[in-house]
Amino acid sequence: MNAKWVYSDKVKDHFMNPRNLMREEDESGFDGIGHTGNIKCGDEMMVYIKVDPANLTVTDCKWRTYGCASAIASTSMLSEMVVGMTLDQAYTIKAKDILKNLDGLPDNKVHCSVLGDKALRAAIDDYYHKNGMEDRITTQGARVVCQCMQVTDEDIEHAVLDGARSFTELQEMTKIGTGCGECQDEAQRVLSEYVQKHFGL
What we know:
Elements: H1 9-16, E1 32-38, E2 43-52, E3 57-66, H2 69-82, H3 87-91, H4 95-101, H5 111-130, E4 144-146, E5 151-152, H6 153-161, H7 167-174, H8 184-199
Antiparallel strand pairs: 1-2, 2-3, 4-5
Helix pairs in contact: 1-2, 2-5, 4-5, 6-8
Keywords: Iron, Iron-sulfur, Metal-binding
Protein name: Iron-sulfur cluster assembly scaffold protein
Domain BFD-like [2Fe-2S]-binding: 144-193
């Protein structure tokens, strides 16, 4: 068996027994709703949060995910991690944090955890928008380059500043183009622009 396709016990547990799954259809009781992914590419995530306005703490997190075992397990784990965090803390959760708590994912499925943290940030941004706190939205104005993975031009710029110089390196850092692949030409163009802007290469 290829070791890269072995799921950890935690991944299996969260897939077989998902936590905080949104089973009811009524979304009206939630303070923030985030959506990311593209169902035609295989994975789509919706995250729903309730927030205590007194201390801006996440009190509940539900979700729906249409995708593979890794996508389900990742979102289930994320929903456990975020409850009790402040919105500022929850906003900083990255895919690597979810992977660590799951004891890793197969290399071919790492992009599934990337969707989870993006959907969470979208839900937090939605809460900020609904409550007149737009100044807290850090992704405002960013342009989405990869619809499947919800990678923005700002994400590409950050990757360049963190060392990405080739499309392969950009893909490893952001998982851009791992869905339908239609964004590759545009992603390479944006990558080149930021490399030229910051490093003159």
